[in-house]
Design a protein that fits this description.
Strand content: under 5%
Number of domains: 1
Oligomer: single chain
Number of strands: 0
Largest sheet: none
Radius of gyration: 18 Å
Amino acid sequence: MIAMEAVSYLLFCVYLVSFFGLSALAAREAGRSVWLFSKGTEPQALPAWLFRMAFAGAAILPLIRAVFGGPVLRDPVFAELDGTAGDIIGHLLVAVGALIAAASQMHMGASWRIGAAEGEIGSIVDTGPFALSRNPVFVGQIILFAGLFLVFPDLLQAALTLALVIAIRLQVKIEERVLAVSLGEPYLAYTRRVGRWFGARKV
């Protein structure tokens, strides 16, 4: 790995550690488990598996590249992105995405959860980054993975990024149904004020 790639990878690892650390703090503060993928009536096995694959793959793949001395599955189209400009833009996206995701997760406090289950949601968080997006953690993660793809432009990283996007799309739909049932009109009013991904809505 060249220096920029190594720093981007290190940022990703720092984000991953902070994700689990903040999750543990939220669980302690809330006095309950924040891991809800296996709970509730909504089937969440597929998005949970895709999330695991995307994050584990993104943690392991750069190490495999370092051993092989470059991309494992090189693609001529993606190879055009490989270079200093792609590394710089990608590194900036990794940093910005990690910051958005971690700050948003921290802002949720005791309402933080991984997955969704009826009766274990916590209160609505609609301030800070959640006043701009209903899913700022996911938005940050997408930006982070887009950055990783620019830093490591090959078929495997593209597949991991796609897996993350699919996982997020599936999970958001599930969480919206659970939140609507669990929190009722206050949540529905929130959805009318703030967009799913970004931007306040006209009321």
